[in-house]
Write a sequence for this structure.
């Protein structure tokens, strides 16, 4: 076990990497947060950026050169990154802030003609690689791209093993559509786009298409695999050794050809030249895109599976409503337990054998409530339980070495979710553990107002999330506050907690597509306030897009709420609410009581009645 300070360990690793770069003739080496499938969350095997930087956030890119190193990440992680990079010699580049260049602009400015940019071509997406190419071209720089090797592999001692977990089949009655039906829909989209085949690399899309799930990434029920789909054949490249006999039979019975995961490159190389292959360059790796473009016509389109997956079918929606109700009951029970326990501890009582409650024990208690649900499989992401100033870090994670003890004052922010046979949940509540300041009440009330305004959104079909985002931000913008992230993202069905293409966000980013909000899409609604060194507040529900009335002006759309967890009335001051917002708050709280109270004990029910004024 290495007992050296973390910053010294990181500096030593970077020294070894620079030596390797020199040996390979690489001047700048780029390490993203990605696996071979450009996944948002990755298994330990792929946490190369974390190994060389100590930054543990889920989004960020490390760039290393002989004289220095930089880490680019977004606003969710500024506070966390600053702490974790301290003393490493790595400069933090705060993305999308004034005066901070993106990686492409930085490289175009710093690199000289004839120099080499290196990266593992399997973990950089084709679209990202192309952006770097264009940046260099526009800067008139002659730069060589070296993407054939993972320079970190020989340096990383005791690297975790490549993920290879159990694979299981989602029955048709749970999926709502068979593999044959899904393949038919994909093939129809290929024909519409003039494509003969699809090379599919996105793991959650592959899980959806083949009606399977895995366990190769923490909290994400995905298996490492690729797919190649033509009008007549479907091939899955997967580690055969992890397939149980019934899964093998399932593939055979559905006409799906199974090949080894490692054979995908040789398979693609052997395809008869001249094919018209649909590729989603956002997810396909730079290396594979280059390989296929050498011999084939590439049709650059969004994976047809992405939109098909995002629009939930009737079976999925029915199951989701049931699961979200059960999940909401668990979270509500947790809030009651936490509030009553904090009062008992303040009176000197012992609660569940504990004299104190910490961020870790609170998260464990919430997980205990979820595990009592029969359909529970796993958490949908590691629970974020941040007390006080810790909650100002959007993706804070308490550890055994560093966590806070809760006190009967201030806020605890809990962002959590579960994976169930019947849905994937994501909910955030900020809980008053005792007295809160007037500023904190103002912030909590404005966040609640933004969430409620988005809940009651009504719009004409054709809008994207960028048209609606202002509804959630307006109460905060009015008092000069904002949050450095989107307002909402899609959520998978027994899949990844973050799903596209739908989202709620205001910022226009060139090259980033927008999706029309379609009936059946789900999306989170999670405005927040994050005051460094003081507090963090977020309120998050999940909603489903639905059709409302249709008339001469077109199809009107709205949201159906899935999450039924009370807002904390101890933290709301109604003097900060408009009359409409007060009515929306009353309606939501009463709906929560009506839906949740039948599943509570008498004590819990009485508390919820008082909390919701029902």
């Amino acid at each position: 076990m290495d007992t050296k300070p973390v910053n010294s360990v990181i500096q030593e690793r970077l020294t070894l990497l620079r030596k390797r770069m020199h040996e390979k003739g690489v001047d700048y080496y780029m390490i993203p947060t990605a696996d071979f499938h450009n996944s948002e969350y990755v298994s330990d095997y792929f946490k190369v950026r974390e190994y060389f930087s100590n930054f543990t956030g889920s989004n960020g890119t490390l760039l290393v050169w002989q004289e220095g190193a930089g880490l680019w990440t977004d606003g969710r992680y500024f506070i966390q990154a600053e702490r974790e990079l301290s003393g490493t010699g790595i400069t933090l580049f705060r993305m999308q802030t004034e005066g901070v260049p993106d990686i492409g602009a930085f490289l175009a400015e710093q690199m000289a003609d004839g120099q080499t940019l290196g990266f593992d071509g399997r973990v950089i997406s084709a679209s990202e690689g192309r952006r770097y190419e264009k940046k260099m071209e526009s800067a008139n720089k002659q730069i060589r791209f070296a993407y054939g090797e993972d320079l970190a592999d020989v340096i990383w001692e005791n690297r975790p093993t490549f993920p290879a977990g159990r694979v299981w089949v989602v029955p048709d009655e749970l999926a709502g559509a068979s593999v044959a039906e899904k393949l038919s829909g994909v093939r129809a989209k290929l024909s519409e786009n003039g494509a003969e085949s699809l090379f599919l690399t996105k793991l959650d899309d592959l899980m959806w298409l083949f009606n399977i799930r895995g366990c190769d990434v923490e909290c994400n029920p995905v298996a490492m695999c690729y797919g190649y789909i033509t009008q007549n054949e479907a091939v899955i490249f997967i580690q055969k050794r992890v397939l149980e006999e019934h899964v093998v039979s399932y593939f055979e019975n559905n006409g799906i050809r199974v090949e080894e995961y490692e054979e995908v490159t040789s398979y693609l190389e052997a395809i008869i030249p001249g094919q018209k292959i649909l590729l989603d360059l956002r997810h396909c790796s730079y290396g594979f895109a280059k390989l296929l473009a050498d011999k084939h016509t590439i049709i650059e389109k969004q994976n047809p599976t992405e939109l098909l997956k995002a629009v939930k079918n009737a079976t999925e929606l029915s199951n989701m409503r049931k699961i979200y109700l059960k999940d909401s009951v668990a979270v509500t029970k947790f809030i009651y337990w936490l509030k009553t326990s904090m009062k008992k501890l303040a009176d000197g009582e012992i609660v569940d054998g504990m004299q104190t409650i910490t961020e870790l024990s609170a998260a464990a208690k919430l997980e205990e409530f979820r595990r009592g649900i029969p359909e529970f499989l796993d958490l949908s992401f590691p629970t974020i339980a941040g007390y006080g100033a810790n909650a100002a870090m959007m993706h804070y994670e308490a550890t055994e070495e560093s966590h806070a003890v809760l006190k009967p004052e201030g806020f605890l922010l809990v962002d959590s979710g579960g994976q169930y046979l019947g849905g994937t949940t994501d909910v955030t509540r900020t809980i008053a553990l005792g007295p809160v300041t007037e500023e904190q009440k103002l912030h909590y009330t404005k966040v609640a107002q933004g969430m409620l305004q988005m809940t009651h959104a009504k719009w004409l079909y054709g809008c994207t999330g960028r048209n609606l985002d202002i509804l959630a931000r307006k109460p905060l913008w009015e008092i000069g506050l904002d949050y450095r992230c989107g307002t909402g993202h899609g959520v998978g069905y027994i899949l990844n907690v973050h799903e596209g293409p739908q989202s709620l966000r205001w910022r226009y980013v060139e090259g980033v597509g927008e999706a029309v909000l379609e009936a059946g899409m789900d999306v989170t609604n999670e405005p927040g306030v994050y005051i460094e060194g003081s507090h963090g507040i977020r309120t998050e529900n999940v909603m489903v897009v639905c059709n409302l009335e249709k008339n001469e002006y077109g199809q009107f759309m709205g949201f159906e709420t899935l999450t039924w967890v009370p807002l904390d009335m101890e933290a709301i001051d109604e003097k900060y609410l408009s009359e409409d917002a007060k009515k929306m708050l009353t309606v939501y709280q009463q709906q929560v009581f009506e839906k949740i109270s039948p599943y509570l004990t008498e004590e819990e029910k009485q508390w919820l009645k008082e909390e919701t004024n029902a």
Notes: The first helix runs from residue 6 to 24. The mean pLDDT is 95. Residues 217 and 566 are 32 Å apart (CA to CA).
